[in-house]
Design goal:
alpha+beta
């Protein structure tokens, strides 16, 4: 499906083309096959297609494996209070 017109304005390129019988539009050759895109409908006759690229701002951290937490009587008392408060609204399990 060849483009009818190509107009370049700065970094943006405006292309006009026709939609085929299966409602497909040919994207520029710079977009690789199977690329992920998002399509946003702005109005009944206006859509914006954007290429979705993975974020490059990922950071890796290493977290040590904790086999067992140290005993803390104060925390265990606090944790028991949380459990007791949460259990008040529950119906008992019938076995």
């Amino acid at each position: 499906m060849p483009s009818a017109k190509n107009k370049s304005t700065g970094n943006a390129r405006f292309t006009t083309t026709r939609v085929d019988a299966r409602r497909r539009v040919v994207m520029p050759a710079t977009l690789p096959p199977d690329a992920v895109v998002s399509i946003q409908q702005l109005a009944d006759d206006c859509w914006v297609v954007r290429r979705v690229r993975p974020s490059r701002n990922a950071r890796m951290i290493s977290v040590p494996v904790v086999e067992e937490l140290p005993k803390d009587a104060k925390w265990e008392k606090t944790e028991s209070a949380f459990v007791d408060a949460a259990a008040k609204g529950l119906t008992p399990i019938e076995e």
